[in-house]
User: Fold these one by one.
Assistant:
Number 1:
Amino acid sequence: MRRMNEAEVRAFLTFGTRTGKLGVTRLDGSPMVVPIWFEMDDDGTLLFTTWGESIKGKSLRRDGRVSLCVDEDTPPYAYVRVDGTTTLLEDRELLRTWAARIGGRYMGAERAAEYGARNGVEGELLVRITPTRIVAQAGIAD
């Protein structure tokens, strides 16, 4: 097993359609982990969308700290965990732009505009994760 360097982390997080598993805290203090689609900005922050009244949205309004894990589920296995703080953005144009970019990543460029329109609506939030700690391991089964 070895630690990934910064370039490897970026490549890992932007490769293909790996989903992130986002950890947040429910109102009663219990943890919740859900899969999300995400995209990385040029500055290394990660963005995703969520409904503002969802458990995720409510949790992020209360406490902007999150943990996101992205893994490679084939040997020799690898993962990147990003702990960070979030900024919630409600700018509709920015939301639509990123929703299209995220939708294009996971569903193909031909459907990007469809996902931008579907997820760029009132009530939806654009969430930006600013990493505070990154743990990245490759070759776990080596």
Note: Helices lie at 6-14, 55-62, 92-107, 112-119.
Number 2:
Amino acid sequence: MYFVHRLLLLILAWLIVAPPVLAEDAAVPPVLARAKTSPVAAARVPTEIEKKIDLVSDALTLTRLAKQFELEKDWRHLAYSLQKLFALRPMQGPIGYELAAAYARQDNKRNAYDVLVRLQAQGYAYAPDLDARFDKIKGTRVWDYIVLNLQANQKAFGGGRPGFDLPGGDTLIESIGYDPVRKRFLAASVRDGSINLVDESGKATPFIKADAENGLLAVYGLAVDAKRDLLWVIGNGVPHRVGIQALDFGKAILHQFKLSTGAFIAKFETPANHRPSILSSIALSPTGAIYVADGPARRIYRLQGDALELVVENPKLTSIRGMAFNDDGSKLFFADYDLGLFGVDLNAGKAFAVAPHANLSLYGIDGLAFWKGQLLAVQNGFPPNRVMRLTLDEAGTQVKHAQALDAAKPEFATPTQGVVVGDEFWFIANTQRGQYDRYGVPKDVAALKPVHVYRSDINFAIDSGKAVVTPAAEAMPPKR
């Protein structure tokens, strides 16, 4: 316990002397304004540690404190720190589950049940019945209903079907595109920077290879501009790229090719003073403008002339992932993995948050696309993995309706980026990134599976008339 007291004193000292972090172009509206209040424990006299925790408002600090309380088996203060963390990250189900477990260890049935019901209503699938941390609160009628509904969320759901498979092996294919003129897919490799043409049967034909001229690194994303016969590619200097040279580490490059032939045209690097960089996402505007995001640095750039120009930078974000334009190119939507959906009104030069409706979590969005006024979101940080169709209000700032297109399908193992083809969304269903260590080396080459490209029917339940997350989304346990 001495360590925790000492840690809290150090944290408070840092908070007193540290200057406030100021948001720049993209202001992030307060998350708490649209969040439900976290479960509150019964009235009791706060401890000195709880009083000090009340002064902490940083998610990372609260996470570190929670880990230390867990090591010391201090369940009361573990729950208290997690309760505050969950208020800061209200859509982040994994935090909520840990909070429920902390309550359960104290035999606090009411609060543990309340958190689990909230997670179940959001569509999360967990198995607390198999978790020994919940032993003290098992065996009641309410518990049985909660477990039943959480199990229902684990069942495969949706109207999609397999598309095609790409060969397994050490390729680490992370991105695909589609050429509507020649009716062919493109698939890109992180490992060697190559880009292949792929038909709907999965047959791949070499198209573009990395060489000294184009300087392709590890390919993280593609954008097809068939109208202008252009292919845009983002590449990064990361350890996963086989044969990477030391001088290329930390580089992030936007490449331009001719779509019809694969001929190299030009390349554009992120500003030297912003390196190291990792371009995590790319989006093509209907007007032909191209935007790229440095996810870890929370920056978005636009290609302006022959340079990447900074458009958005906000240290209050956590990690920018998928990006997509609306139909007329006036709004750029992007996902923050922890905080949900945001957008930039490019005409007004103003950022905004996209608020979810009740019982909708926008946590863990990796891939994003736009289709007929609606957003398609791939949630791979969400158990179960799922693809959602989100209908927005006219301003684009509120989700009016949410429908799971596919969830918990057996093909899903960290699904990621995809592309709209007609009324279907084709996406990589089982990225192999988890099979590589931090140095970019495969943990077990034999375990690298074929890459499944899945196709979701975007029109699935299009006329349902009400929000549906999963089959169990509306099931509720009886009153206690």
Note: The radius of gyration is 23 Å.
